[in-house]
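Side project, low priority. Logging it here so it doesn't get lost.
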Amino acid sequence: MPHDTASRKSVLVSPRYLAGTAGTDPVTPILDAAPGWTQTLVGPDPYYTSPCQRLRAARRLHGQWTFTYAADPLGIPTWSAHFDRTVPDEALNAFAERLVDGVGNYFADYLYGGQHYDGQTPVGIFTAHEWEAVRGSRPWHMLAPDEHAAFHIRTGHVDAPDELRHRSAATWKITAGPDPVNRPTWCAYFTGHTPQPLMTAVACATASPHPVPRLPHRVPELHRPLVSLQPSAHAARAAAAQARSRPSPTVASPPYESSRASASVISRPTRSR
């Protein structure tokens, strides 16, 4: 389908990690509706605190979101996650929903033995969707089949205070764009102690093959030659028919242990760069 940026009709865009944003805030409605969460305005931007007072969420700089958690509400953060303002809504939405649902018991329901545990890890999810590890890369990373999205893991010693101060030093990173490794269009960063269920939710939302609705002009200009557009009504009917004809498989992978253990999940041949 031609990319008519003047059209005001929504289309379905794939791959979703190149779809851009819908132009609305996907996080604020979730946190506003979450029981016990409080909001304070810092200038024009909202600043949220969880009922346990350990989790903080702040929107700033025209749509960037930063989340921090401290075991001691008055102490130094244990972990942080940061999303650029151009991270697709679906990834942010998945993170925020999992955050609100799980922070009360620190995501125990999503870990081994919990009622929502499914054995998935970010590496396992990306592998199931045919993302491949790049041989000898530093930091270690995987690439999507079209090579326009990447999942990065820093291995070896990572200085915890350094990665809290400088998001570029974060242990985990998801990026996308025409050159997602060297010049990504958007980045999501997670420090080393970020709970795996949160990153797993973002991985699922990023790697899903299902297209997402956007107005054509919302797709970033650099991404337009790289995406496929379908009329919303036609594509929605086709997706519904496909879902009725065969269920989507659930992919399980070994429980998360560490960045090195996650990297070792890959057993398939790797792409040379």
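Brief comment: Helices lie at 28-33, 89-102, 122-128, 160-165, 196-207, 232-245, 259-264.
Revisit when time allows.
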